[in-house]
Amino acid sequence: YRVGQSVAANVYRAFRSAGLFLLTDIETVIDEEEEEKFCMDTGNRLTCNDGSCYTISEKCDGVFHCLDGADELDCPEKLGPSFTPINKRLWPYWNRFFTLSFAWQSTISYPDGRAQICVDVPTDIGTWIVSAFSISQQNGLSVLPSVVMFEGTRQFFIVVEIPKRPRLGEQIGVRVDVFNFQAHRIEV
C-alpha cells in the first residue's frame, strides 16, 4: 500500500479518475458493474471514484459530494450573471493561472530508448517534484527509480503590475512587489 494523490478506492479507479485506461492481460479483480450495482441497490444512487455513493439529485448541483468531485464531472455549463468576487479580481495575475502539471507530456522515444522533453518551468514560488514512467512492448511499464526535485523559488525578484494602455493625462497606479527569499536583508 502506498499513499498517493488520488482518493480512488483501488488501482482501477485511480487510473479512471486520472482519465487513463487500464489495459492489461492479467486478470483484474475489479468488477465495475458490481461496484455500481452496490450503489444502485442502496437507494438508486451513483458511484464516486472512491467507492462511496451519491444520489442522482446531487449530480451537477454545484456541490462536491464525492471527495474527488466525480459527481460534478461532465455537467453542462451553468449560464448566469458573470460576476468575479473582489478577491479574485485583485489577486496577482500569475497566481490565478497557477498550474501544477506543467511537465505532464507524452512523447515517443528514440529507437535506442532515449527521450528528450523540453518544458518551460513556471516562475512560481515552490518546489517541484518530477517523476516519469514509460510503457514499451519489450519492458512493459517502467517507472523512474527516484524522483528529481527542482527548487523554482527565485532568490530575489520584482513583479510590476501596470495598466496595459494608459491615456494621456490619466492618473494610474503602479503596483510593485519586491520578493527577497535570501537569508539576509538587501537594499533595493
TrEMBL record:
Question: Hey, what's the signal peptide range on this chain?
Answer: none
Highest taxon listed in the record's lineage: Eukaryota
Keyword annotations of the record: Disulfide bond
- Alpha-2-macroglobulin domain location is 101-188
Q: Name one GO molecular function term.
A: endopeptidase inhibitor activity
Q: Which Pfam families match?
A: A2M
Disulfide pattern: C48-C66, C60-C75
Which PROSITE patterns does this UniProt record tie to the protein? LDLRA_2
State what protein this is by name.
Alpha-2-macroglobulin domain-containing protein
